[in-house]
Amino acid sequence: MKQMIYPRKIFAFLLLLALPACAAFVPSFPRLENYETGMDAAGKRFLVHAKIDGKPATLALDTGAECLFLFKPAAQRLGLNLTGIPSDETRQNGKFFALETKPYEVAIFNTTGRMRLLVADFSVPMDVDGCAGWSLFKNSIFQIDAASGVVRSLSEVPKEARDWTKLRVHRSSDVLCLEIPGLRKNGVVLVDTGNDGGVSLNRLRWQTWTNTNPQRPKTLTAYYMGGSGVVVGEESWAGKFSLGPLEISDVPVRAASPSDIAVGSPEAPYQATLGLTALRRLDLIIDGKSGIAYVHPRTGPFRPYQYNRSGAVFVSRDPGRDKSAPVAHVLEGGPAYQAGIRDGDIVVSYNGQPPGNWYEGPTTASATRPAGTKMELTLKRGEKTFTTVVELQDLFPPAASGMNSQK
């Protein structure tokens, strides 16, 4: 059976199925207990080592996904019986097809059961085999300790945690959402361990925050959504950020993606997403049995946050399918703008070499290299070709670099 899914940010997929929800895939799978898992070497996501039909698979633990979801290359490597997975060339309006498989034996941590899987094609290479979503964990008590890079099950909520801020787990959501009080109705906050960002806000909250903090530094960010291509947007930094009863220190803030916003409903409007960078600033225990989350703020300094120090991103419209040269998106007044780069300039070469994949070129260098790094770019604007040098700058305060905050 083929189903439509709305893919989210790369490595984090919100599976809002047009046909039966993912919860229908796992009711017979035993509850996960006595488990602990860590992060990959880059600290970008939690990993779950599983076996599917007796063969090993590595999954991203993604509370922003509904169920167990495999990418096509992994399903083929595992030898699953597939009758044909539509290519994501067929995607439309941010959606692409996933194939529902027959039931397979699945072992996750020390628990074994049988379940149907979802498999989808994806045009960008992935370094995990798929995602282990919220439906597998929602009936257990567990701690998300992003600061230490560990997710672990608990036999009960620790005594000291019972005095932390308590939020309800939104029962009707197929992903991990917490309720926060609103003026007329409660809103929902998505907790997304498949997202390595900070706080992503709905449109109204983002506009309100930027309007009331006009002097806050900004840069640009870019990420890939499997169904929609590249999303480019502004990112800023908050010394203190309040979200209902939650207060988070020294955290990046940006506008939410359309698929994050789709988590909400008229009865429970979407408010924000907490990615791993935000979760590193919180102690969080989820009591899935009782539907309660226990949250407590942490104090810094926190680990360095990789952000764009050039104020520009260089991406093709759709790197999964579009092999054209990267195109510049530039924040006015930033280092790239000062170097004479403007929106729409096409990258001809980067440090004397062809730009290659957009995620291996100047966009990635802007976030991974320190301030003072110089990037030589040759660009084309209309019929004109020119070369310029962008010097990376620390656009965010010292707290973003893991040093004591200077608010």
Give an overview in words.
By secondary structure, the protein is mainly beta. The chain has helices at residues 72-77, 203-212, 258-261, 276-279, 335-338, 362-368, and strands spanning 2-5, 36-38, 47-52, 55-61, 68-71, 96-100, 104-108, 111-115, 118-120, 130-132, 141-145, 150-153, 165-168, 177-180, 187-191, 199-201, 218-225, 229-243, 246-255, 270-274, 282-287, 292-297, 312-315, 327-330, 346-350, 374-381, 384-391. The chain folds into 3 domains: 2-136, Beta Barrel (Cathepsin D, subunit A, domain 1), CATH 2.40.70.10; 141-297, Cathepsin D, subunit A, domain 1 (Beta Barrel), CATH 2.40.70; 312-391, Pdz3 Domain. It has a 9-stranded mixed sheet. The N and C termini lie far apart (54 Å). 45% of the residues are buried.
Which keywords apply here?
Cathepsin D, subunit A, domain 1, Pdz3 Domain, 3 domains, disordered N terminus, mainly beta, 6 helices, 407 residues
CATH architecture heading of the largest domain: Beta Barrel
Q: How much helix is in the residues?
A: under 10%
The percent range for strand residues is 35-45%
Using the coordinates shown, work out and report the CATH topology of the largest domain.
Cathepsin D, subunit A, domain 1
Quaternary assembly:
single chain
Radius of gyration: 21 Å
The coarse overall form would be: globular
Total DSSP E strands: 27
Short overview:
It is globular, with a radius of gyration of 21 Å. It folds into 3 domains: 2-136, Cathepsin D, subunit A, domain 1, CATH 2.40.70; 141-297, Cathepsin D, subunit A, domain 1 (Beta Barrel); 312-391, Pdz3 Domain.
